[in-house]
Amino acid sequence: MKKFTKKDKLYLSRAFELARLGRFTTPPNPNVGCVIVQKDSIIGEGYHKKAGSDHAEICALKSTTKSVRGSTVYVTLEPCSHYGKTPPCTTALIEAKVKKVIASTIDPNPKISGKGFEILKKSGIQVEYNFMQNIAKNLNPGFFKRMKFGIPWIKLKLASTLDGRTATNCGISKWITSSKARQNVQELRAESDAILSSATSILQDQSKLTVRWHEFSNKIKNIYPKNEIRQPIRIVIDNLNQIKPNHAFIKQNGKILLIRTKEDKLIWPNYITKIILDNTRYDLNQNTKNINLSELMIKLGKLKINNILIESGARLSGAFLNAGLLDEIILYQAPKILGEKARPLFFLSESIRLDNAPKFSISNVCRIGEDVRFNLKPIKRKIKKI
Questions:
Q1: d(Cα 386, Cα 366) in Å, to the nearest integer?
Q2: Peptide bond preceding 28 in cis form (omega within 30 of 0)
Q3: Which residues, in sequence order, are CB contacts of 181 under 8 Å at separation 6+?
Q4: Which of 9, 6, 2, 3 is nearest to 35 (CA)?
Q5: Residue ranges for the chain with pLDDT beneath 70
Q6: For 149-181, how does the pLDDT look when each residue is reduced to its tens digit (9 = 90+)?
Q7: Where would you tag: which of 8, 48, 184, 352 has the fewest CB atoms within 10 A of its CB?
Q8: Which of 192, 182, 156 lies closest to 28, judged by CA?
């Protein structure tokens, strides 16, 4: 096995720094960074900014005025080898006569997966990979998951008090957490391909589910200019057809998917797409049909949605938890107490024994303003290929 050097780690780490700069704008493409090194000096670097624009390798090649002949190219993902919206990066690297390509990991996209490396090798370019792979996968969890399993990475955002309450008993939740925590949520939204909620939550909270650039920190504003803002797709689960064309939520321009169990005859704006799901389960307690969430995730995967952020109430959150679909929970916990009559984090369909309770590991914990943010991931959760 190839032994990578400290310099390899240094240059590839820089490529990852660059890749992260595109996290607000690249969907459905992955975040990729690239560094070109010649005689132990960086002579070019770049990252993929958005779908349809130059890939990271091309940006790096264009960034230098020097000849890159004989150089080493560090890239966070296998160079593409097919014509999409842009020409193959392998062709550009071959024509530039680079000597070596060091990539973090193979591209999970079956159109590429190993083909890029083979083309480079056949042209006489040295290829080395499988280095810092976990960083590459953690940078693009939704892309890797969708390519492997056909469904998006599903992240649930929650905000609660110390006693696990999300709103008062009459439903008032503004504001449980601090302005700093809400600012951080705007970053979560901006990084997501789509934001998913229920019609009940939207109507009750008058949510818009939009990215509000003016709420970003100055640091984020500097890397994500207002003129480049990308609004995630908004997905609404609306079993009872509660959302109407005249609602404020609909009047916010941007692509919206309405997920329903039956059609209507109303006139909708052209940015609205209705998805009618027939595979439903009748809920006697709610006297309504519940959609098949797994089926919905398959459809969203086919729409090239990599990352979904759920912002909803206890019922839908509980449904995703029951279905075993959650990949991550982001919990903002405020130092407040609302008491037993206030609303809980989850409504679950059945009582749970302590020895069979859903378990999570804490992958990160930090203080944000007055609050604490927990990043939680399921333990012993098996994903079947759909």
A1: 35
A2: yes
A3: 159, 332, 334, 368, 369, 370, 371, 373
A4: 9
A5: 1-2, 84-85, 168, 170-173, 279-289, 349-351, 380-386
A6: 999 999 999 988 888 787 767 666 678 888 889
A7: 352
A8: 192
Q: Is beta strand 153-160 parallel, antiparallel or unpaired with respect to 328-333? A: parallel
Let me know the angle formed at the C-alpha of 378 by 373 and 379, rounded to the nearest 5 degrees.
125
Active site residues: 57
CA angle 123, 126, 130 (to 5 degrees): 125
**From residue 326, how far is each of 44, 221, 234, 316 by CA, in Å?**
39, 30, 18, 12
- State the pairing for strand pair 41-47/33-38: antiparallel
Cβ-count burial 261-300 (b if 16+ within 10 Å, e if not): beeeeeeeeeebeeeebeeeeeeeeeeebbbebeebbeeb
Placement of tokens 């057809």 in the chain: 241
Alpha carbon distance 26, 63 (integer Å): 19
Judge contact between 38 and 70, C-beta under 8 A. yes
**pLDDT single digits (tens) 57-77:** 999 999 998 899 999 999 999
| Pairwise CA distance, residues 384 & 386, whole Å | 6
